[in-house]
Amino acid sequence: MLQTIRQWIEANQTDILKANQRLVSLPSENLYPNGEELKVQLEVNKLLQQLGFTTDVFLPTDVQGLTEHEAFLNEGRIYDNRPNVVGVLKGTGGGKSLLFSGHMDTVPRGGDRWTKEPFGGEIEGDKQYGLGILDMKSGMVAAIMAAKCVKELGYTLQGDLLIETVVDEEYGGANGTLASRLRGYNADAAIVPEPTNLAICPAAQGGSYFRVTFEGRAGRSYSGENTINPIYPAARFVEIIRQYHEWRNLHTPVHPLYVNNPELATLIQVMRAGDVDIDLGDRVPSSCSFDVWIQCYPDVTEEQLYQEFISFYQNQAADDELLCSHPPKIEKKLRFLYGTSMSEDHPLLDTLKTISTQAVGASLPYQGAPFACDSFIFNKFSSTPAVLFGPSGKNAHAVDEHICISDFLKLVEIYAATIIEWCGGVKK
To answer: N or C: which end of the chain has fewer CB within 10 A?
Structure first.
């Protein structure tokens, strides 16, 4: 089976990479509270229909019960012209169902200077470049091309095959993913093609986002005014954040699936101070704030993470006169992203391990994903267990984002063989 799949991929490699190029060429930036996913979603819909899938194109907000669900993120997001696309290829009966699910929104291009065209899908050596190609358009292209391979090799599936592309995953989203579950699109198992570097990941981390604000007293003290510069206590807090990052990575018991990749990220992502943009504005700022992202292992609760963070800060600041006299305001931002995992006894994991070992000639890494994503919607709020397994590459969310082409083509091979094995493919 693998040999014929490999031959098909070799014969169709140009078309497969052109499919990546096509999706990359259609910008789908998540420009909160709006997004530009419509064009790429219509292209996905066309590709699925060409393969014989019955498709459903719908807005997340058209799904009954979405906004009332506990996992719905109510942050003023707008879903006009931002449809999900779900394709269903019905099986003949008697086989297990499989769902591939991934988001089509990307982070914005930003102001950084790319050396490649961000919407070009350019190929150089073993790399293909483009905004969103790694996170996660190529993963969904791999699923679609795997389905095409299975069809053209003459297999009929006993179990249902579902391929969905959702909107609004970036920035703590997942409302699109939730909408598809509530619309009834569930399966015996799901594969989420996030960029795991060909690691099979039955778990993903979670995390919380906080805004820390120090208030000051703006102005200049020419006439004896009592100004307070909030940047000074904020600088002390930043150092405590650095210490917290080191402390928790030394003292947090390592989750079994993270033994080989144990680091828990603690990131200061944005910092703001001052309201004068002209050089030598000559004014003490009125406030200083920064946003902190803190990741956690699966099964850690929001309250546990918050209390750990606050307790560490309070202990470190107890003898700091500046922080005691100018305490920060700490606010929770966005949703808590749950760290979750699927059962390691699930048979899809054995199927993936067996097929990938045969395809690659060695065992692929088996571990938890070192990031948070929308997979918690599957593993916590649906009946469909999900594993993360996707392409390799570099620079997700950054300039010159790219995939490794040889690994990407191997992913198509593994996906195709998994579809045949899991869904009960019968050769015509």
So the answer is: C
Name the DSSP letter for residue 135: I
C-alpha–C-alpha distance, residues 401 and 395, integer Å: 4
Residue 83 tokens, joined: 């449809």
Rounded-to-integer distance, Cα 1 and Cα 385, Å? 26
Helix, strand, coil % in the chain, rounded to nearest 5:
35, 25, 40
Alpha-carbon distance of 276 to 284, in angstroms, equals 10
Which of 332, 361, 398 has its CA nearest to residue 134? Answer: 398
* Spatial distance between the Cα atoms of 415 and 338, rounded to a whole number of angstroms: 27
Contacts for 15 with CB less than 8 Å, ≥ 6 apart:
none
pLDDT the model gives residue 226: 66
Q: What is the pTM of this model?
A: 0.95
Given this model, what pLDDT does residue 290 score? 96
Chain position carrying tokens 């591939």:
100
Mean pLDDT, the chain, integer: 96
- Cα gap 418→416, rounded to integer Å: 5
Contact indicator for 402, 130 with CB cutoff of 8 Å: yes
The whole-angstrom separation of Cα 124 and Cα 313 is 47
CA distances from 337 to 118, 340, 384 (A): 29, 9, 18
Q: Flag residues of the chain having pLDDT under 50.
A: none
**180 three-state secondary structure:** helix
- C-alpha R_g of the chain: 24
Q: Does residue 342 have a cis bond before it (omega within 30 degrees)?
A: no
